[in-house]
Structure prediction request, 282 residues.
Amino acid sequence: MKDITVNTKLAAIIGTDIGHSKSPAMMNAAFQKTGLDAYYYAMNIKEEDFGAVVKGISKMNFVGLTLTIPYKIQILPYLDEIDPLAEIIGAVNTIKIVDGKMIGYNTDGAGFVKGLEVDCGIHVPEHTFFVVGAGGVSRAIMTVLASKKPKKIYLANRTVSKAEEICAHLNRTFGEICEPISLDSDLKPYIDQATVLINATNIGMPPYDDQAPIDLGLLHKNLLVADVIYNPRKTLLLKTAESLGCPIVNGQSLLLHQGKIAFHIWTGLEAPGEEMYQAVFG
Prediction:
């Protein structure tokens, strides 16, 4: 552990149960590589203490925060400014602190889409996306995709009203791009049209690691299949897709690229991606 002095800039990830987080190793590798006197650590905060902690942090030597569930929405009343895309998403997972002012961003969607673009060569306007799940991460990914004007986004969810709400919101903002679908309906016509399929659910990670979010018989070789899950590195969905010859990408891409974006927001520097990757996945 590095020596922390009165001059050390601090950053932290805040949640209620984050002892498993890989972010400290990744971000501290970035600080070390760039020679910054900064340190990033994990903080478990009780919900009843959240407001007091955030107000205190804004007066301390912090440059930034990462927020996980349940605080991505609870943070909103404490912000002095919010990035326009984060405002559309309605949730913040990254904060920059400048002279006691807290500026909110959302790097979930930006990180995942950047991974598709950089790691997979995806040019969003040329593609049709099929997204499974209508939770917070899905909403962030959908918002960034919609802002880049793809051909179409189909959003499938068990509770179709949640998909309808997200699609209506994005269609009002970006034009008629999104279409909600029930996961219980016939998905084949939509997946046949898609060129990128994204699992934005927790189906595929323990205790659901023997399950897939859709009927695997619907996969076709013209799909790029992406999963927000990084543990396991290959879910049942990704293993099956790979066996069919589909290109695949897992949640490592999301974690790495959102970390790189957060690092740049806090420091203004280009993030050392290789060192960050090795610290977590090497």
Notes: The chain is about 40% helix and 20% strand. Residues 252-267 form the longest helix (16 residues). Residues 9-106+255-281 form a domain with the Rossmann fold fold (CATH 3.40.50.10860).
